[in-house]
Every structure is written in C-alpha cells, then in structure tokens.
Design brief:
29% helix, Uridine Diphospho-n-acetylenolpyruvylglucosamine Reductase, domain 3, Uridine Diphospho-n-acetylenolpyruvylglucosamine Reductase, domain 2, 3 domains, Uridine Diphospho-n-acetylenolpyruvylglucosamine Reductase, domain 1
Length: 333
C-alpha cells in the first residue's frame, strides 16, 4: 500500500541457518519479531516496527515424480505467481486459477489462498514450519494444517514461520473453468480451455479489476481485498433477506453462508471510487482500499473503519480485515 514506517532491525533470511541465528538473537535480546513474506497483504504503522523483521527469502522449487503425479516442494520466499507460472508451464493442473496473486509462496497455506474456483489446500501435501518459540522444525500434513475458508492452523496460531510447502499435482491438459467469471471469459472468446489459457484468462479478469500489482495501474496500489467475505449463520441470512431479498449468499460447510464483502460495501452506499482524502475504494472493486497518493497508515485505517461502520449500520454484519495489521487497528465497533 506504500504506507508505514521502518523496521528497527531487519534480517534477510536466505537459509535455514540464518533463520535459527536470527531467532536466537531475538530471544536473547527479547526483541519482538515480525515475519515478512512479500509484504503485499500488510499495513504497518507509520512509526514502523520496533523489533526484528525477518524477511523470508528462502528460494527454490524441487519436483519429484510420485506415480503419475508430481510432488513439488516450494520454498517460502518464492514469488507465488512465478511458481504458478512454472507449474502451468510444466503441464501440472490444480493451481492455474491462482494466477496473479501477489506475495510469497509461504503465505499461501497460511491464509489458504483461493480464487476463481481453486484453493491451495486442495493440492497441499504438507507444510514445513519453524517454531518462533523453540526454533524447532515441524512438518504438517494436510490434515494437521486444519485448513478452512481463508484460514489455517498457521493463521490461528501465528507462532509458526512457514519455510516451505509441498504440493501434489496431477498432469492436466485443461484448466479449471468452474468459476462464473472464467466461464464467461471462455464463452466470449471461444478458445480451448488449456491450462495456460485458463491462467491467461484469470490474469485478464484480475487485471480488469486492478487485482494484479502493476506500477502502471494506480488502482492496484492496495492490498487486494481489504476484508474477508463474512461467513454467517442462517438466521443472519433470514434477517438480511427480509429487508434485502437479493443479497447474494453462498452455502458453505456446517449450514453456514458466505456473503460477498464487496457487495455489502457497495449496497451500504459506498460506491467504487469513493474517496476518503488520500485513500479510496478502487474504482474497479469496492473491496480494495487503495492509496491515491501520499497516504499514510492512519488514512488507510480511517477509511477501513468508516467502511466497516457503514456496513455494520446498514446490515448488522461486522467485516474482518484481511491484511495483517501491524501496530494499527480499526476503530472498535
Ligand atoms: P467475486 O467474483 O466478485 O465473488 C464475490 C464472492 O462471491 C466471493 O467470495 C466468491 O467466493 C463468491 N462466489 C461467487 N460465485 C460463487 C459461487 N458460484 N459459489 C460460491 N461462491 C461464489 O469475487 P472477487 O472479490 O472479485 O474475487 C475473485 C476471486 O478471488 C474470488 O474467488 C475470491 O475469493 C478471490 N480472492 C481471494 C483472496 C484471498 O485468498 N485472500 C483475496 C482476494 C480475492 P470465493 O471466495 O469462494 O471464490
């Protein structure tokens, strides 16, 4: 978002040994630790971080054939989209719809990223992580990761530093076209839905919403979606439908429903392009809060607080910020 202040101390973690060394140092000096991946889903206070920032820069991608499928071990610091591009190029399916997501690969299992009909948890075989407290390395199989919608053990219990994930991928000629936007793209273009065509389609759809980081697109100067899509109980849906029959609600596990945060924002009267001083809602997507130029973290937090309050006043639903907030917080509800 191009806001925030400096780190008091900063380590480029480019090896497991460097990670252990840095954690030992932080323990001995009693420094707070902030684990930084790609930095694309983060709002840091304007005063910065008074502790040690560990920039996870572990690189590498190894493949191993297992029967007809391929296990791919991806180091946490690999740029996520570069990984997707390589896997699609290798003819491996299961992740092509995750094209264009910014940030580092290590963040993918933490919030179980998903988009356009695929979620990373569907292809994760295991995740390796180091305990911030003990420095011990542990390997979690998929079940132990306890994935759910945009959530995992690592998000709920942030004392783990993800160092790598291993994906289990099948070869595939064609990509996943289950998502409405992707289907529309192909029915308009009429081209075959090969893996690389689906990747290109997702990139094109994301670009049309300014959801691909691009220095030439000022509407992409944000952290993507600023709020998660709320998962609510059926009684909330019944209450909402009584006033607003057309509210979109998608059934999820355990009889609950997923709402569209972007829809709630727009229908609470905050149109795309709404400005709050130096920060605004993207003209392309109401869920993205963007830096219009010269903003600081407190401008972002103010705008997000106004959005959250307005949605709550209109619908009685509390939006939860998706980015990691460091040293800043939204106004209490
Ligand atoms: P969108 O296409 O406007 O859809 C808004 C919401 O409606 C999303 O939560 C989406 O669910 C849901 N939805 C749409 N069609 C659905 C269907 N047939 N069944 C169930 N749910 C349906 O979303 P957007 O904001 O532009 O985002 C596009 C995609 O990128 C979405 O898949 C979104 O989740 C993803 N995204 C992910 C992250 C992340 O992982 N942190 C951040 C930004 C965007 P799903 O969320 O389940 O797709």
């Amino acid at each position: 978002m191009a806001v925030g202040g400096p780190a008091r101390w900063f380590v480029n973690v480019d090896s497991a040994a460097r990670l252990c060394e840095a954690l030992d140092l932080a323990h001995s000096r009693k420094w707070s630790v902030l684990v930084l991946g790609g930095g694309s889903n983060l709002v840091i206070d304007d005063t910065g971080f008074d502790g040690l920032v560990l920039h996870i820069n572990l690189l590498g991608l190894q493949t191993n054939m297992e029967g007809g499928a391929t296990a791919v071990r991806v180091a946490a610091g690999e740029p996520f989209d570069r990984v997707i591009q390589r896997l699609v190029g290798m003819g491996l399916g299961g992740v092509e719809c995750l094209s264009g997501i910014p940030g580092a690969a290590g963040a993918a299992p933490i919030q179980n990223i998903g988009a356009y009909g695929q979620e990373i948890c569907e292809v994760v075989q295991s995740v390796e992580a180091v305990s911030l407290e003990t420095g011990m390395t542990k390997c979690f199989d998929r079940e132990a990761c306890d994935f759910s919608y945009r959530n995992s053990l690592f998000k709920r219990d942030p004392h783990w530093v993800v160092t790598s994930m291993t994906l289990f991928l099948e070869p595939s000629e064609y990509g996943n076209v289950s998502y409405r936007d992707v289907q529309r793209f192909f029915s308009a273009s009429g081209t075959p839905t090969t893996l690389s065509a689906v990747r290109d389609a997702v990139l094109s759809i994301r670009r049309s919403k300014s959801m691909v980081l691009d220095p030439n697109d000022p509407n992409s100067r944000g952290c993507g979606s600023f709020f998660t899509n709320p998962i609510v109980e059926p009684d909330v849906i019944n209450r909402l439908r009584a006033d607003t029959p057309d509210v979109p609600a998608y059934p999820t596990q355990n009889g609950r429903f997923k709402l569209s945060a972007g829809w709630l924002i727009e229908h609470a009267g905050l149109k795309r392009g709404t400005r709050f001083g130096r920060v605004g809602l993207s003209p392309k997507h109401a869920l993205a809060i963007i830096n219009l130029g010269g903003a600081c973290a407190k401008d972002v937090v103010h705008a997000a607080s106004v959005v959250r309050r307005q949605v709550f006043d209109q619908f009685g639903v509390v939006l939860v910020p998706e980015p990691v907030l460091v040293g800043v917080a939204l106004d209490p509800m």
